[in-house]
Amino acid sequence: MAPNVLSTSPSSDLQLPMPKDLSSLFVPSMQGPIKSAFKSVMGNPTLAMINMAGGVPHPDTFPILRLQATVRTPNVSESPGEGTLVIEKATSSQSTESLDELLQYGDGCGVDSYCRFLHKHTQRTHNPPYAGWGVIASCGNTDAIGKAVSLFCRPGDALLVERWTFPGTLSSLRAAGVQPVPVALDSEGMVPDDLDRVCAAWSSETPLRAVYMVPTGQNPTGATMSAVRRKSIYAVAQKHNLAIIEDDPYYFLQLPQYGSDSSTDVGEQPESLLPSLLSMDTDGRVIRLDSFSKILAPNLRCGWITAPRYILNKLQIINETTTLQPSGVSQGLISSMLNDTWGMDGWNAHLRQLRATYARRRDQFVQMVERHLSGLVEYTVPAAGMFLWMKIRFGSAAHADPTAMPRLLETMKKCGVMMAPGMPFSSTGPSPSDHYLRAAFALVDVGMFEPALIRLAQSIVAIRDSSAGDSQDPAKIQLVSPVGPVKSR
Ligand SMILES: Cc1ncc(COP(=O)(O)O)c(C=O)c1O
């Protein structure tokens, strides 16, 4: 069975400050000591004990006898090959548990070897500047967001969010009866002065206790906070004693400047990456959420949470009444790949290759936008992630026309191109002048960028002209480059 929350070793903590105690910000049901239901049933059995406490099946009944996977092996020499990893039923490898252990019930923290790698990785990448931080496994950031929010917000409470934000978070807040409180965004993400203003003006009976943000390659705007912006946001959170939920699935998709040589310019890991909020967290007020979805594969459903240990203990208890931990098969595959096959160097080479791939896609997409949408959209070239956020310039006739966006989407559909409208990302509800589209340049073939953007341009012109009285029936728009169906999601 995996040990309790992995935390920094006492020797590495010696020079570091203790985290501030934020437990007064927890919802009342999470304050004070809470006993883990799991542990109160299972206890901590010693080897000498004949343990008959749990409803735990015997591994001899598990029908999966061996797990074998062929994985890409990135390496520093730019020529990825393939490697095989094998997880045996009863024998653990040097660093990964046996299949029997992976398939057995575990606690709310995650598989030991999986967490150990991520602990090492977090130390190396973010080096949190306080004592007693740790990591636990999550089933990805969607899972982790809901759990982190539930620590600080009850139904009727409020959570600070970016004015445009991840719809999964908005849905989770809606389901939990938590009110999103919008904070202004600019091309560098959440605006510190506005965060300060909203907090200072807050007069509701229930205080603001936490702020949620996506600091890198923000979804949907693609905005990335500079190091200076991150420091200012952290200072405002300190001033108003807010916990920070740092949802950062695009952190490792930081891209070189647009127009530079993207194949050679991605830089070494992790020194060339922007500092995370966790890396400046002297107070221990950041709950950092990382996910493998965008950097390995989404349906592994695996991620990890980094926070002060006493906060992780609460999240562990929430895990033990919900998911327990991600699938042991997923954790075992990841652990074996990272620990046994790739090692830290291979992992870093993989992340570098990923950044180069996304940089090439971003550059090619933006070039096509420049070529076909000049004057029709406004945008900032994203410095991370997979999204280009465009404000549509319909012209003055359609400026506040509430039908302009629905008509544009309908026209785009007829033309055979789909992008996400701004509305589901809005933390303030729909507004007739919210004329935004989010295009993701991660999935479709690069060769589809041009026809997609030509279709978008034609659709915008059709709506702009029809609003100006120069009507063109969208059904009659000629497709410049007809293409077959393209798989999208
Ligand atoms: C900002 C943000 N948070 C969380 C998620 C969901 O991540 P996961 O697949 O780890 O649940 C996404 C996915 O699109 C996202 O953009």
Automatic annotation (TrEMBL):
Record CDD domains: AAT_like
Keyword terms of this UniProt record: Aminotransferase, Pyridoxal phosphate, Transferase
The organism's place on the tree of life at top rank: Eukaryota
Record-annotated Aminotransferase class I/classII large domain positions: 90-446
Cofactor: pyridoxal 5'-phosphate
GO biological process, one term: alpha-amino acid metabolic process
Pfam families xref list: Aminotran_1_2
One function term, GO molecular function aspect: pyridoxal phosphate binding
Stretch list, region Disordered: 468-489
Signal sequence bounds: none
InterPro entries recorded: Aminotransferase_I/II_large (IPR004839), Class-I_PLP-dep_aminotransf (IPR050859), PyrdxlP-dep_Trfase (IPR015424), PyrdxlP-dep_Trfase_major (IPR015421)
PANTHER family: AMINOTRANSFERASE, AROMATIC AMINO ACID AMINOTRANSFERASE, HYPOTHETICAL (EUROFUNG)
Family statement drawn from the similarity comment of this UniProt entry: Belongs to the class-I pyridoxal-phosphate-dependent aminotransferase family.
Protein's name in the database: Aminotransferase class I/classII large domain-containing protein
Organism placement in taxonomy: Eukaryota, Fungi, Fungi incertae sedis, Zoopagomycota, Kickxellomycotina
